[in-house]
Structure formats: C-alpha cells, structure tokens
Amino acid sequence: MTIRFLKFSLLLAVVSATVAGAAPALIGNKNVAAEKLDSATVKAVFLGKKVSWDGAGRVTLAVLKAGPLAEDFFKASVEMSVSQFNNHWRRLAMTGGGTAPKAFDKEEDLRKFVAETPGAIGFIDSGVADATVAVLTPGA
Amino acid sequence: MFHPRKLMNFNQIAKAASIALTLVSVSQAAVSVGERNVQVGGFFSQGYIDTNGNNYPFENSSGTADFREAAVNVSTTVGAHLRIGAQAFAQRLGNYGDDKIKLDWAVVDYNIRQEFGVRVGRVKYPKGLYGEALDLDVIRPFVFLPFALYNPVVRDFNSSFNGGMVYGTVNVGKGGSLDYKAFYGDIPMNPEQGVADFFNTTSLYAAPGVTELGMDSTYGAHLVWNSPVNGLKFCASYSALDALYANGKFAAYPAGNVSLLLKRYDYITLSTEYAVGLWTLAGEWQKAGGDTVVGTPFGNQLGKSVVHNWYASVARRLNDRWEVGTYYSSQENKKPAAGTPNKATYNRDWALSVRFDLNEHVTLKLEGHSIDGGYNLFNTVRTPNRTLKDRTTFFAAKTTLVF
To answer: A2: distance to nearest CA of chain B, Å?
Structure first.
C-alpha cells in the first residue's frame, strides 16, 4: 500500500512538474523581433504558407521533434497534433511544396539554432529562453 | 511445392531490401547535407499483392512482389523568396513502371507573399484531396487510395505536369482561409505508361496496343476552404486534358490505323476532409468525361464518355503505433457502349486497412479489398483478364521507409 502510494505521488509530482514547466514560448532570431505577428500569421508561418518575413528575410522554422511541449505548441498554434504537423510537412516536402522545418531533439540546440539563424522562429520552454533570442508575443 | 514464381519474388524482395539499406545510408548522410541549406528526403516502399478473381489493379494472379516505389528529393532555398528542388521517382506495379527512374517533380518556386506565388517546371498535379500526394504512404492508413479517384496504374501519367502554376493563401478572417492553385501545361505521354491500357482495353487497337499517345495541353484550378471548424476543409477542383489522342493499328483491319480522340476530357471533383481527434473522415465525388471521336479507315464515329466516381473513407488512430481505416469506392460508366454487360459498367470496392508504425520512419500496412463489377478492369498484354469475373478480392501488404 505504501509503495503504491509512493508510486502515485511520484507520478503526480512528475506530471505536475511537466505541466508547470511546459509553457511553450515562441522565440525568434533577434532580426524577427520587429515583425508584426498575430495568431493567423504564426499559423501561416508554421504551415509553410508564409515563407518570408516583411523585413527579416526568409522564414526558417525550428521545431521540437516530439514531446508534450511540441504537442501543446502545435495544438495552440496550428490546431494539429505532432503527428499531423509532421505529415503536413512530409506532404509539402515530398511534393515540391515547401522546405521542411529543422527538427531538434533538445530545446537547447533549437534555441542556439534560432539565435544563430536570421529569420528563424521556433518554440521552447519559456524557462530555456534567454537573451540570445527574441521572445515573441503574437497580438490578437 | 516450391513455385519458380515464388523464387523470383524472394529475389525481388532481396533486391528491394538492398535498395532500402542504400536509402537508409542516404538518409543518414542527409543530416550533414541539411545543415548546408540543402534538404534531402525520400521514401522506399515494397509491397506484396495477391488477387483472387481478376488481375486488379495490375497483373498479380500468382501473387507478386512487383509492387514498389522509391523516390529521392533534393531542395534548397535562395534568398527570401526563391526555392528550387527536384525528385526522382521509380516504381514497379506488376508489368508497369519497370523500376525506371523518372523525374517526378522539378520546380522553381518564387513566393512573393502569402497570397501569391509562382511555381514552374515539372509540377505536381493538383486534383482532389490527394492528387499531389499519391504515393505518400505515411500520411494515411491505406495501401491504395480509393481506386475511383486515384487509380495507381495512371500514377505515371497524372501525378505531374510540365508547365506553371500560380498559388496562394488568402485569410478570410473568422471564415478561415482559402488556398488556391491555377495551372497550365502539358503531360508527356507514351505507350509504355499505364494510361495506355485504358485505350488498349477498348479492343480498338491491334496487339500490342496503341503506338502513339499525346495531348495538346492540360489546365485547371484547385480551391481549398480551410473552414473555421478545426480540421474541416472543403475542396473543389477542375481540370481538363485538351485533345487527348491515342493512335494505333486498327484491330478490325490491321492494315489501317485507328485513332481515339477526346477533344476535351474534364474532371470536376468535390471533396471534404474532417480530421477530428483520432478520426479522419473523407469523401470525394468526381464527374469525368468528354466527347469522343473514333477515326477508322471507314469513317468517324462520335460518342461521349461520362463517368461518375465517389468514395467515403474513415480512419482512426488507435494509439501511437496502430491505425485502422476503411473505405467504400464506386465508379460508374454512365455512357457504356451498346451491348456492354451491366457488370462491366461499374466497380464497387470495399477496403479494410491496418497500419502499424514501427517507428517514425518505417510503416507496415495490411489491406483487403472486395470488389463487385468489372469496370476499369483491363484485358491487355500487361494486365490480362481473358475472362472477366464479376467479383475480385485481393490482399495487399506494404512496408514504407520514409526519410
């Protein structure tokens, strides 16, 4: 009984930590900071329909390959699951319709890529964002 | 008893496996290439099909592993608006394709803004929900897309065209968004393509069949409304093939020639897809047809071709690895030639599929079909059906590696 209670407590703690820590932050290269962003633009960008910024060159997408943060971000931004998002881009890339996002396993690698790549936009846990990238806040 | 045909199949599978290993190596190499603004992708699939009844959709009456596809694509971007890329493709479907490598698409794409872009070169042909994605196994549970709208035998004909396209996306506020495409070009044709058997099976042509195929041009438009309801979209497509012709020796008088001309062959396609939660529901209806002229040494005969096609499909993802799906697909010839048996005027297909994702790169599928009717079943050199049977059942298995 005690062991089962400990297991449950541990699971609850892990879930709570995941939920509490998994607040996706939209980040961009610093040259993207001046771009006008609303939710429709973010959706168009991540679906490959808007491929260039008004003043920051070509859009380069950076995404996490999987995980709850990616699920949360895609659901909120493009109304898709990770699987649906991946299939959307496989379809575009395999039919000559777009250049697939750069996919990362680690948030730190994604953040570094966005910081070093003009026009790049991606998402990471808000706790991982630092001054090397612009934290973007889409308007209504 | 060990059948020589089966031995050939094992050899084919071994050959296919070696190709797959090569492609895995390519996919590993692609990572370093990708860091230099060049993306490399592709897929390889190997299937097995065994039919009871008629040979359908291609020759496989003893069971065959002559069922595979492979593609490798490369693309890069130049500046803020320009993208270039190309994909090589090879397939073997029974006696079609012969694993010959062909240029599937090769585009120069200049996207001026979200609302307007231009794509020229060899461009994927937009028609219906999946016309541009005929061989993307990874995006669906089915081995075969519904035959009513997506016959795999004509994949080497209608998947791409040479020409240009304008496209874009227009946001309509709370009404969602509209994706549009309009295109013009032509499709190179030859008697080796699967499409030739649609003419060869008419009995007009002396064996081995048509000797010349071609068209003047193809054009059309494609409109998708991404509705405000999450996952729900509607699509309308129009496309036309102008002056589509097939010439050959006349079967009834081999000293002379026969030509079949479709002055303009139109496709009108209406579609909807609803991806909600773990479910994907889809349905499409299509009307295809045009006026025909059969020219023989003894004069011309005018006619009309009208075909109605539709299907409804349901797919459900069970968990991260498993997905199931089913569809009902119907084709009906509304203007059959006089004397055509009723059973040869329609084709109604039930399909049931199971998909298993081994990992994010490898997919396995099993599928069963039960088909009533004989419309669009060939009796040709490459797909013989000397006596058409009323019913056909077949089983297909397919594995796909995507990278």
So the answer is: 32
Q: Domains along chain A?
A: 22-135 (3.40.190.10)
Give me the helices (H) in B280-376, please.
Answer: none
A102-116 per-position pLDDT tens digit: 999 999 999 999 999
Report the distance separating Cα A61 and Cα B37, nearest Å: 12
Q: Where are the domains of chain B?
A: 4-402
Rounded to a whole number of angstroms, the distance from the CA of B213 to the nearest CA of chain A is 26
The conformation of residue B201, written as its DSSP 8-state character, comes to T
Q: Does B119 touch chain A (CB under 8 A)?
A: yes
pTM of the model: 0.88
pLDDT tens readout for residues A59-98: 999 999 999 999 999 999 999 999 899 999 999 999 999 9
Cβ pair A102:B34 closer than 8 A: yes
- Name residues of chain B where pLDDT drops below 50: 1-10, 13, 16-17, 19-34
Architecture of domain B4-402: Beta Barrel (2.40)
Task: Tell whether B357 lies on the interface with A, counting CB pairs under 8 A.
Answer: no
CA distances from B164 to B77, B182, B243, B244, B258 (A): 19, 9, 19, 20, 33
Residue B150 contacts A where some CB pair is shorter than 8 Å? no
